[in-house]
Model the fold of this input.
Amino acid sequence: MAALECPIIVDEHGDVSVYSGPDQAAAGIEPIDVRNGEYRFYDATGLVLQAEVFRSRSDGRIRRLLIPPTERIRVFAPAQRELRADELASTLRRFLIRLGPERVGATEQEVKSAELALLVEFAAKFMSE
Done:
């Protein structure tokens, strides 16, 4: 599995969420939406990530009999890397301009000309407010 760089950015048709890591991203989304392909997942460099839904059973034989399996999500970097830094930068620019760059202490021009790393920083700042 390829390494990934946090934070994790989740794009749901232009609505962006930023998570500190893959476990937090998995906890913040619904299995049905993953199955329906509602999200695009990226690491901070624009590496396209994958998500999968799996069933998890409880530990212990008695508990397995009494507690049904639950659906969980795993977000991970696939073995075959696909870097889409420009795509992620465009998505973040549109998102930040739509919400108002002043909310992250920037101007529209600064957002339009910012490199990916700064755009990720802006989006993470917005999500932490």
Summary: The chain is about 40% helix and 20% strand. The chain has one domain: 8-128. Residues 8-128 form one domain. The mean pLDDT is 90.
